[in-house]
Every structure is written in C-alpha cells, then in structure tokens.
Hints:
The structure is a homohexamer.
Chain A: H1 5-11, H2 16-25, E1 32-33, E2 37-38, E3 46-57, H3 74-81, E4 86-91, E5 99-101, H4 103-111, E6 116-119, E7 122-123, H5 126-130, E8 136-138, E9 150-155, E10 159-161, E11 164-166, E12 171-175, E13 178-182, H6 187-209, H7 223-236
Amino acid sequence: MPLSDDTRAKLKTVSTATLCTGLYKRGLRSQFVQDVRPLDPEVETMVGEAYTLRTIPAREDLNPITVFQDRAHPQRKAIEECPPGAVLVVDSRKDPRAASAGAILVTRLMTRGAAGIVTDGGFRDAPEIARLGFPAFHVRPTAPTNLTHHQAIEIGVPIGCGDAPVFPGDVIVGDGDGVVVIPAALADEIAEEAVEMTAFEDFVIEEVRGGRSILGLYPPTDPQAKEDFAAWRAARGR
Amino acid sequence: MPLSDDTRAKLKTVSTATLCTGLYKRGLRSQFVQDVRPLDPEVETMVGEAYTLRTIPAREDLNPITVFQDRAHPQRKAIEECPPGAVLVVDSRKDPRAASAGAILVTRLMTRGAAGIVTDGGFRDAPEIARLGFPAFHVRPTAPTNLTHHQAIEIGVPIGCGDAPVFPGDVIVGDGDGVVVIPAALADEIAEEAVEMTAFEDFVIEEVRGGRSILGLYPPTDPQAKEDFAAWRAARGR
Amino acid sequence: MPLSDDTRAKLKTVSTATLCTGLYKRGLRSQFVQDVRPLDPEVETMVGEAYTLRTIPAREDLNPITVFQDRAHPQRKAIEECPPGAVLVVDSRKDPRAASAGAILVTRLMTRGAAGIVTDGGFRDAPEIARLGFPAFHVRPTAPTNLTHHQAIEIGVPIGCGDAPVFPGDVIVGDGDGVVVIPAALADEIAEEAVEMTAFEDFVIEEVRGGRSILGLYPPTDPQAKEDFAAWRAARGR
Amino acid sequence: MPLSDDTRAKLKTVSTATLCTGLYKRGLRSQFVQDVRPLDPEVETMVGEAYTLRTIPAREDLNPITVFQDRAHPQRKAIEECPPGAVLVVDSRKDPRAASAGAILVTRLMTRGAAGIVTDGGFRDAPEIARLGFPAFHVRPTAPTNLTHHQAIEIGVPIGCGDAPVFPGDVIVGDGDGVVVIPAALADEIAEEAVEMTAFEDFVIEEVRGGRSILGLYPPTDPQAKEDFAAWRAARGR
Amino acid sequence: MPLSDDTRAKLKTVSTATLCTGLYKRGLRSQFVQDVRPLDPEVETMVGEAYTLRTIPAREDLNPITVFQDRAHPQRKAIEECPPGAVLVVDSRKDPRAASAGAILVTRLMTRGAAGIVTDGGFRDAPEIARLGFPAFHVRPTAPTNLTHHQAIEIGVPIGCGDAPVFPGDVIVGDGDGVVVIPAALADEIAEEAVEMTAFEDFVIEEVRGGRSILGLYPPTDPQAKEDFAAWRAARGR
Amino acid sequence: MPLSDDTRAKLKTVSTATLCTGLYKRGLRSQFVQDVRPLDPEVETMVGEAYTLRTIPAREDLNPITVFQDRAHPQRKAIEECPPGAVLVVDSRKDPRAASAGAILVTRLMTRGAAGIVTDGGFRDAPEIARLGFPAFHVRPTAPTNLTHHQAIEIGVPIGCGDAPVFPGDVIVGDGDGVVVIPAALADEIAEEAVEMTAFEDFVIEEVRGGRSILGLYPPTDPQAKEDFAAWRAARGR
C-alpha cells in the first residue's frame, strides 16, 4: 500500500503531536521514536515511507576502513537505493558513540530525492548536515566513523528505532518534536483524522489566546464550543 | 509566607548560579532541578511560587482519551487554577517518553498570568511553546499525549522534580542554566544576598575582562580587591 | 613534543570527523570525548595541547565555600596556570550535576590566551560563556557551584574525559561535532593526512551536490574518480 | 473491595508470570514493578493489598536525624499502621542510593502481621532482612539512612513503584520473578483465571519434560492437546 | 565451519576470562556479552554454536496473545528448530522489561538437546529455569510475557546481544563470569591457546597460593618461572 | 593517623548501615560506595585503610598484552605493594565492561595479607574469587582483561569509587550492604559511637521481635525505653 500523494500532502500540514494522539486512540503507544531531534530545528515537516537499514555492533576484524571499497556495503547501498520520497530509517541500537552517516552520504541521499533520514544514533559533520535544508533526525552529533561501533548488515527488514517498531513502508513523519511511525495500513485514516484535529486545535489555540478557558472547550464538552468551532470553520473555509 | 514584590523583583535580576551558591552556603545542595532547560534560550528570568502537580505511571484502563471530558481532571484543573504569578511545577518522574503538556495548555497557563512552567518530563508542540515568550522548562520535546505514560493525580502537594524537592510555595527561579528551588522561608534573605553577590560578580567580570587575575580578587582575599569593589559600587551607585 | 604552529594551523582547517577517521585507521577507537558539545555552535575550531585537571567526588567537610580563599586551590590554579594556546580539559567524571566552572573563570582563561576548555560535566553561567566567542565544550548547563559535587584534586596528570583517555600534551580539537583527543606523537602525521582527506572530501561533496553517485567515488575505487580529483586539485591549487 | 480470603489463597498458588499474562490479555502492560527482586530468593509467594508510602527527594534542613523523634513521621507511621495482611509499597523514585528501611522497621512490620514490603529503592541491613523469612523486595542493598536522599511525605495515596502505577488497595503479588500489581477490581477474576492457567501450564511442562513439542500444545491448537489436558486434570483432580 | 567435538571439549575446560584474553590478543575487544549472568551460578560451562533470534519493539496491534496459535511464530519456531548442541542467542535489545522466554520454552529447548540459551533481556519463571540444570543467561528476572515489549521477527541472522556482535555459527561460551562470542573461524585456535593458557594459570595460582610473587611469574618474565612451569607440567602430565 | 587495632576491632563488629548513620550525623552524605556488592555474601566484615589505584580509559596503542612484562605496571605494583591490613580500592570509573582484576591477582593480594579489595568496576574469575574467603566487592562479574577498557595509571592518590571520595588512609568497611568510606580523622570516634549504636539496635531488635512498637523505642523518646535498655545492657554486660 504505497503512500498516496493526498495522504502525503495532508501529513505535511499536521504535527507529530496530533498524529501520536490519533495512534493513541487506536491503542498504539510505542510509535514515537524516543530521544531524536532535527539537526535543523527550522526544517519543514518530513513525510515519507520507511526504507530501513539495520546495524549490529561492529566486530573489529570485519570493519577495516577498506570495507567501503565494496559497492555492495549495506550502508552505501542503502544511500544509493533508498527510493525518492522515502525516509531512510537506521537502527543504530540507540548508540550515538559513532556516526550513522556523515555529510557526504546525507547529501547524496538528498540529491537522490529521499524525504529525509532518521537514526537513533548520531551524525558526523552535523553542522554541515544542519545547513542542507534536508530533514535529518538523530540523538546527538558524533565524529567517529560508523565502523567504530556499527556494522550495517541488512536493508528492508523490520527494525527498532528509538524503541519504536518500524516496518518497511510504514509512514514516517518528523517535525520539531521528533519522529513518529504510522503503520502503513493506518496512514490514510490517521492523516484524514489529523487534518480535522488540527483544524480544531487551531481554533482552540486562537480562542485560548483570546482568553478563553480550556474547560468545556478542549475537549468541546460545552455545546457552545462546538457551535463556535463550526462558525470558525465556515468563516475560514476549513 | 507569600513571595513579596520586592523579593520577586530582586530575583529577576540574579542568576540561578548565584542562587545555588547562596543555597550551598546554607547546606542545601539538592535544590537545582537536574537536566531541564528552557525551550526558548532567550527568555527572561522566570520567578514565581511553586504550584505543584504530581503524576504517576499511567494505567491503560484509567486513561482513555475521554478522561479529559472531566473538567476536574488534575492536569486541566492545574492549568485553570494555577495562581497568577506562580510557576506550575510538574513531577513527571523524570520520564520524557510522553508529554507533560502541549501548546494549548501552556498558552492557557500564560494567558491566565502564570509566571512559567517546569516539568522533569517533556512538552509536545515544543517549537510553538518556544515562540510564546513564556518561560517553559523541560528535558526534551516529546510528541505522545501525556496519557501514554503519565496520570496526573494530585495538586498542591510536595513533589520531586528533577531530583529536587519542591514544596508548594517554594520560590522557583529559572534562566539559561536551568531551574532552582528556593525554600519559601529563605527567599527574602537569599534574594538579598544574591543581589549583593551579583554586584560583586559584575565587578569581578569587568576586572577579569580587563586582564586582572582571579587570585586575590575572587574571592577578594586581597584587601585591594575590596577597596576596588567599593570604588566600583560608588561609581555605579550599586 | 610541543604542538608546532604548522600542525596547529592545519588542524584549524579540518573537522573532528576527519580526524577520527585518521585515528581509526591507526587502531584508535576511543579518542572522541563522548557527549560534549560547544556552548556556542558557531564558534571557530578549537586546537591546543591538553592541560589537565582532575576532580573527585566532593566530601562535604573539605569543601566549604571558603576553600577558594586558598590561592593554591587546584581549580583556580589550573585557570591561572594553563599555558597560552593550551586547552584546559577537566575530568568531571561525566557528572553534570554541579558546574565544572562558570563565566568568571572561563573569561579569565580566555584573557590568559588559552585555546579553549572542555569538561565532561557542565558549566554554570552557560549563556554568558556562550557569548564569549571562546571555545567551551560541556555536557549541559548546570547552576550549582562545583563544590557541590566536585573537588578539584590534581593538575597535569593523565585523565579520562567523556570516556576518552587524555594525556597532558595530547592535541585537543573541537568543533560542532564535539571534541577529539590526538595522541601527541601522532599529531603531525594525523594533521597532514587530515588536510589531504579534507581536500578529497571537499571534492566529493561538490560532485555529490552535482548529482554524482558515491559508488566508485567515495572511496575512489573508480579510476575516473581519481583523475577527476587530480584535475579538481590542480584547478584549485590544493 | 477488600481482598477475599479465597482470592488471596488462589494467588498464593500462582506465579507473577502467569498473572502478568492475565493482565496483558486485558490491555494492562505496565503492572510489573521493574527491577526489584526478593532479598530471600527462597521466600514464599507474597500476597496482600497495597498500603502506600510516598517519598520525595530529601531537603537537608528538613531531615536531621532527630526527625524520627516525631512519632507521626510518615515512615514510622506507615510501619506502625500498615494493616495486617497488607503489603507496604514504597515509592522511592527508583533511587537506591539511600535505604527505604532497615532491619528494625521491617521486623516490626513483620511482627505486626503485614504480608510484605516492596520498594523501588533499597534496604539497609539487607542480609538480616533476607533471613527474616518475610517477603521483602528491592533494587539492591544500600547502607545510608533514608534521610540521606528520601523524605517520606504521604501515606495512602496512588504512587509509582518501579514504573508501575499502584493504587491503595491494589493487590500486590511477589515471587522469584519480582512483583506485580493487580488492580483491585480485577483481583478475583485474574486469580480465578490464573489458577486455571497454572493447571494448564503444569500439564504442559510435564508433557514437555517428557519430550513433547510445544507446537499444537502451547497454546493447545491441536485438539489432542485439549483432550490430553482434560484427562490429566481428571487424573489429578485439578 | 562446524564446531568440532575436539574444540567443544576443549572449550568446556577453560574460562570466559581466558578466552577474552585470547580474543584481545587478536584485536577483538567487543566479544563479551555485557551484563548477562547465569540463572544458576553452579551450572557447568556452556559451549555451542550460535543460533540467533532477533526481536524488535512490540507493536500492540500485531501482538495479541493469539499470535502463538501460529506455529510459524519466530519465537516458537526458534525453540523447535534450534539444532542440538547449539546455543539460542536472543537479541532482546538490552530490554529486560518483558521476558524473552519462560520455563516451558526453555525446558523444551533443553529436551531438544540445545546447549543453552542467552538473552540480553530477561526470563520469566526464573527460579524454575534456574533449577533445570540447563545453561541460561540473562540480565534479570522479569514476569511480563514477551509480547509486552518484544516481537520475535527473524531467525538465523547476525544480531547484537549485550553490545556484542553475534553471527550464526559463532561459538558461544558461558560460565560464572558471563558469555563470550568466538568468531567461528577462530574457534579452533582460540580453544587450543586457551587450554595452554589455562594450564599456565593453574600453575600460577598454585604458586601464588603458596606465597610466590606475581612479579616475574605472571607473565613469566623470569626464566625460573618458565622452568618451574615446565616441571609442573611434566609432573602433572599437562 | 594509622588505624589502631582497637578501632579496627570495633569496626569488625558493626555494620556499614550503622556507620553511615554516624557519618550522616556529621554532615557526610556521600561516603557509601554506590552499587558494589561482595562476591561472597557470607564473607566476614572487611576493615582496612584505603590503598588506592586509579585508572583511565585504555588507549589501544598503550595497552598491548605485553605491558604486564613491566614489573612497574601500576596494577601489578599495587597488588605487590598494598600494605598488609589495607584495602585496595580501585577507581574503575564505574565501568564494569572490563575486569579490574582476576583470581590470580586477588589471590596474591590475599596471601600478602591485605584486608580486601573494592572496585567500582568488575572482577573476572568471579566464582573463583567468591570462594577465596577474602573480602572482594564489585559491580558485577566481567570476563574481558582490564586492558580492554582500563589503564592503571597512578597509586596512592585521592580517587572516586562508586561516587564516593576516597583518600589514601581513609578507613574502608564492607559487609553485605556494601562498602563505606570513613575519613581517617573520624575513624576512632565513629567506631566508638557505632559500637554504642549497635548495642542499642541489638536491644531494639530483640524488643521488636518480642512484639514491641518502635514508637518511643526507636529512637527512645519514651523514658521507659531508656531504662529498659540500661537494664538490657547490664544483664548482658555490654
């Protein structure tokens, strides 16, 4: 079930916070990638299907610097084969002691049209990556080459990332709060619902800024709140 | 013992670092809220009396999304009842895996005249909150709704926040270094002393910028240092 | 083996990421100071020889505020004796619960001509230090005075900092990714090699920005890549 | 809804593992007290209603050794008022750096007829407590007096213990795997179900010891497995 | 390269400490499974080839209790297909909050002739497993069913376990110190060398018990030490 | 101020819990070595003056296995020079990923008459060490040679161990609860006081076993409690 243009467009307009609430309502409590943040806090919202890369702890004899001479090395292969519009999600076992990637690989990923990159480890060349205007999320900057602690081992398999389960094709959304994983089969309905919730939250925050209490308004247990929202939507065409 | 306007004004002009030294001199070593930071690093110094909210780990059956239909839900009640000028301090058990609050609630708190909010968990909608111009301190951004891991359970009781003890009415001060908790009974004398210390530190840093050694100056074991400081104060009317 | 002006100048032009790769090639995998970051992300690259300060956990009776009246207190002595051009590296046992230093001491260190300061703890007055234009790296801001948890005990001995071994005289380099420790005996050759690697990486990133694949280019297993690089160097005089 | 003798008796015969499965089937995934263990691994299964004690971080000026001269001190009061048959559950904020209690208090609790004690901190005099034959669960031994880091503050309120929510009256069961919290309203049905599950698991383990595959047997998707279990129950009168 | 009977027999007679030294001499520093211990401290040394099972964080909708009705569920399949003489190594992502397996599955694994089981999570029914006389290693006991936090996803792939890389077929050895992973290609030579080292260490400890200094003896830089060892070996036929 | 035979003898009869209370009364809250335990839980109480060994993170090129051919290597030197009756305290930077020592070195230390050994890392050959009847305390067993992560660097300097400050000559006491560090100058008075407290606690626990309430008894705010204690002492000659 590929991500439709319509759903992608909708997801670009909502927040990870709103999406987490939609997931929560469906009993999904573990879809937020814990402890990752955007390198560029001003970057636009990232949306794309998960393309996964898995790592294991590096064994010294298998990871000389020469391994990258192999064009089939999974890290390099993942960068070159991640589909346009997809998000490369790297399972770095929550270990930022060595980099998951650096500026050259992330730039290549960007020029190939990927939607973004997420690791539960760290990136090297972090200041350069932050200036690319490309959505990239990690735990913290880290200079050592990935070979120091990570051996990329497998592409396109289910992984964990920041304690969240990620299946290839799941829809990944990232913003200033972090990254959320939407199961592929739920993406359309969650996106639809999130657009509605966002309209309501925009209305609420306007009201609250104007001095209104949240009681009866958020959630709208007071019938007046529902009427006011309907009027607000009509006035704004949302 | 309510916080006086005079003490509040004084505390606005000093740093948490200086206050921690004042507390240290009195044998209080655990009053700094560990590992929290302002969402907006440029925000003005936060000062207010502690209004506390306590949470426990969320039990799934007690935390459907519908609980917020109850106007007496402690999280919502805390937002609506926190006194103007007070700081809402949330004991989130140092767990930022789910949000302690989001932009709507924090905006409401701000419009109600609170002085700020602190949690040893995280906020959702963190970029929005950062733009409010309202002092808010947390561990890190986090998108999941509070119900995912936190059940707000009690208001107005002594709590822990970031390993610091917080009693309702304690004076909370926050700046770029973080947040400190001043026992209510000590607020006046600590504020007074901190203003004096700040004058001295301003003098010292001027001298140091001019090339003077810290030896004999900081602390002023050299009599000349004391004389110079007296002259400096006289010249500046401090 | 003092750090030569030539090597210092070279190290100013390369990144910690590139240096870590050079160390990795020599079997050194533990030279990155884990989990520290610059207070000012825009600061220039820090380069200098390590001048070390070691701390132990503070014993309450040995650390009244009056200890600083002793001009020989190791923390103050380290600030006043760190050689110009050196980096003060503080072993704070990875404990940021209390400050390793504050704005006054860091300003003094700067005016004395030191190249920077690193701690695996935290600084107080962090916003002020961030504005100094002086390279300073730590884990996070922290307001409590160092006496709360740290007793400075020894200067000029081998230490650990962020899980990296640091010997006095090792060459310390810091940038937006963090801080790396180069064994003194390797500094010249690593600097030389890093300058070469940087030229190549600058070439690669230009190519990648232009749409070229990393396969065959990075590393340059394709002979064409080597030729292109030679042409690029010739054209730029690098 | 007090714990009935029948349910108490049933719970004495089942394991925390089996109970966790019963809770899991009802959507409760957070009822296991993480990272606590019995001081005496051979102790009998602990069953009782939760009687709760909450702590906050200790403030030095409020916790001189003389506080225990106050008979109303919450820690002492909790020991003297915990009902016979109940389990004293202490929220120590997952901090074992100082003791939650020692041998004298635990012995007093035992002689008063309590069913056991649980803390997500540690006990002092741990070897003595281990020899009492009284169910006691903690993170690890720790010699410092509770006043060093804990201030007992409140009795009989909902708390967290090892990341599990605990409401007064919840049914606490502990064995060699650790401690589980059963919501009071579910205790009867969970106990009933667990007794049935235990009979089935006893049958299964006998079969498995005899060389039978778990496929089709556990769970019993093979009709023969159900028949064999029925025969086994009949033969043993269970 | 299957594990030979001869190498298996040799490995049964040496310690994980000695094996780690052999690996260290070959530049392998990450082969010890960190933070796992035997459930039964008296169990015999475990030796076998790694048969691997990988997990990801559990997604709630994919992990109802009914999943075990599927005979192809990877956890159950791993138990039923692990070859005799092999060690089942489970990558539980260092998360002991829910069980990796319980007594029924471990008993089945034992009766099928496996050599042992290792997880970097925990086991439920830990006291029962400890009494089986079957080598089992974990972080700590934990009662919740694996479905609570773990979804078994893949068998027979390279994994991480306790920060060690584990490839299928690597030789796993466990004793009272924990578990070490020997790359398959090195097993014969490491075993051979470890037997020699063990003889020497047995000699040394006898000498040390008799009051001899370790200087010159361990390592045997004193020629007399080598002579004495030769005599000792001759006398004992080792 | 060497440890007197009288004080040593007294300390053998009291618990680390009682000693921590004595230290607490003097404002010393950080003298307990956090998170270490005896390898043999049945071992007798350890008492001795601290003889310290400091480590830093291991740099690979400085730590080939051949370093032990140097008789002056600090780890070996510490074992051979630790005075009889002293406790070797190793600052392993709270890192148990590699061993601080193994059975051969600990046996040598024992035969040389040392009183015990403590590390905030781990020991290899832990089961063997546990059988020596020699007091040894650590975090957990760990098989890798110390060279993997630790470089012994200095003997006889102040160190941290498990977050406690340790000065050479401080008096180290260890039992089933763990290890406490008594500043040398306080050892006599703390020992004296602890013997008195122990007599009182022995009286109290007898009373409590007999059914007496702790209120008024512990502490003895009820005059009757003091009288009863006086009678108890008289009867037992304590």
